[in-house]
Amino acid sequence: MKKLSLILAVLFSLSSLFSCVEDVKEKEIKKARSVGGTSEVLLITQNEDQWNGQMGQAVRDFFEQEQYGLPQPEKNFKVAHINTDAFNDMFKKHRNLIIAKIDRDIKNPLVETQKNWTSEPQFVIRITAPSEESWVRTFDSQKDGLKLIFDQNERERFQDFFRPTTDVKIVTQLKKKFGVSMNVPEGYFIGIDQDNFMWIRKETDVMSMAFMLYELPYKDTADLNPDNIIRVRDSIVKKYIPGPADGSYMTTDKEFITPVSMALPKFPAGYAIETRGLWNVVGDFMAGPFVSYSIVNPEHTKIITAEGWVYYPNKDKRDLLRQQESILYSLRFVK
Q1: Structural domains in the chain?
Q2: pLDDT digits (tens, 9 = 90+) for 120-167
Q3: Pairing mode, if any, of strands 302-311 and 123-129?
């Protein structure tokens, strides 16, 4: 009996030890939340000459291009800057980091990347080169992929913020109607729910944000043609989204900002066609940006389109549209 008690005591001690080790590991793995303004990239240079010269200019020229589909000019990202001697622990938690270094003693450029270095979500790219010209060439070879990662970081930041406030009633109705899950936060309400269409709205005194989802039969890949997507969109919003004046209705602008589409093979819900552009109202002066994703369901019998749009007259809309995009990226098919 004493022997059994001793064995149990040893096992209990080992169990407690392993539990402590797991707790330590969990604490070690857990990172601080990343910092930085919305749609902000932080460039670390060794001196002001690098920031004011061709290195800083290359980063600004790329990331501060105007975002397509917005009625007023707004940059994709804001590029902030500090020098290495100011790069303290706080700045090391920035969400989107580019660390630049010129080392005259090396022959070839070196590119190092790291995810969640000191915080999460975070992505860090370190580019070391023997000259400024070489650094710029190396950055140019990496910039497109880097932007995709920084865009993902921005979406993850919003998703983490919205996830605890998910509106269970709306999520349940989406599952019931379309067989999808989407983390719509509190503050929205269902404006229309009929046929194969749903309009989810958020209204304040100064702005309006909305989602719409609609489902149609899928025949073949021609249904995913960009022109067909816009044609279908126009027919849907004319039917369901009225303007403020009698006889007015929403449509897609095709003159001021032409809608553009691109394929997203790795969209979370499956292969998708993303469409960006400007909506306006026939018979009124309302307008704003939209982004939509058209996806064939896993049974390949229907196409579901999920779209978000913003109305915020005479104000910046980039960050609000990013919020809509991040919520749309949470869409998944469920059984």
Answers
A1: 33-162 (3.30.379), 166-333 (3.40.1000.10)
A2: 999 999 999 999 999 999 999 999 999 999 999 999 999 999 999 999
A3: unpaired
Which 3 state secondary structure label does DSSP give 273?
A: strand
The C-alpha angle with vertex 70 and arms to 73 and 199, in degrees rounded to 5, equals 155
Residue 103's identity, in one-letter code, is D
What the block records as the tokens of 314 is: 């005479």
Q: Strand, coil or helix: what is 167?
A: coil
User: What is the spatial distance between Cα 157 and Cα 141, in angstroms, rounded to a whole number?
Assistant: 26
Q: Which residues contact 110 (CB under 8 A, 6 or more apart)?
A: 126, 127, 128, 129
CA distances from 241 to 88, 191, 211, 251 (A): 51, 10, 11, 9
If DSSP codes are grouped into helix, strand and coil, which group holds residue 262? strand
For strand 208-217 and strand 249-252, is the pairing parallel, antiparallel, or unpaired?
unpaired
Tokens standing for 219?
Answer: 């025949």
